[in-house]
Amino acid sequence: MKGLIIVGSASPNSHTRALAQFLKGQIEAHHHEVEIFDLAERPLHMLDFSGQNPVPEAYQRNAEQLKSLAMEADFLILGTPNYHGSYSGSLKNALDYLNMDYFKMKPVGLVNNSGGIVSAEPLSHLRLIVRSLLGIAVPTQIATHDSDYDKLEDGTLYLSNEEFQLRAKLFIDQILSFAKNSPYEHLK
Ligand SMILES: Cc1cc2nc3c(=O)[nH]c(=O)nc-3n(C[C@H](O)[C@H](O)[C@H](O)COP(=O)(O)O)c2cc1C
């Protein structure tokens, strides 16, 4: 099976990216493929149907990559920082490039990180979007805080909180189990 993790932080080396990296490791430990699409590294132009604003080629390529990875994915994970009590604008913009064809009856995991008071509210907001896209947001979700991470010598962040490491494993088990059993295959 193939998965796609979309990271919606505006910062490279974000906490959300570090969480995605941990989740990737768990998925690969189950011998499944997964790619991280970090919007801080592969930004998208603001969705624009006017045709009047030239979109740089690199941005066009990123959009094409995102669409092809999302179409191929058997499951998706949406990762976002907490921005103003919700998910990030760049993640919403990325989702606006996709439609039901990319999500229909696929399991979707939701994760977020807050720098202030820990909140899962961005995930509740994302749940509504996933429902609109006919995806299946799995019940387990992960809402971390900056303090759940440490830095390696080169400054790269990693998820260091052991409780969240365990939760992340259960979260991945759940997503893979939904994807494998695919009870809704006939509804696609
Ligand atoms: C535009 C913006 C809005 C933010 N709003 C909130 C907020 O409402 N609550 C909060 O706890 N942190 C807020 N933060 C702080 C981020 O959650 C914090 O920087 C966090 O580390 C981001 O995670 P990341 O490293 O994955 O990007 C905000 C940051 C930005 C840039």
TrEMBL record:
One Pfam family named in its UniProt record: FMN_red
NADPH-dependent FMN reductase-like domain residues: 1-143
GO molecular function: FMN binding; oxidoreductase activity
InterPro entries reported for this sequence: Flavoprotein-like_sf (IPR029039), FMN_Rdtase-like_dom (IPR005025), NAD(P)H-dep_reductase (IPR050712)
Cofactor names: FMN
A GO CC annotation given for this chain: cytosol
Record keywords, A-Z: Flavoprotein, FMN
Quaternary structure (record): Homotetramer.
Family: Belongs to the azoreductase type 2 family.
Protein name stated in the entry: FMN-dependent NADPH-azoreductase
Lineage: Bacteria, Bacillati, Bacillota, Bacilli, Bacillales
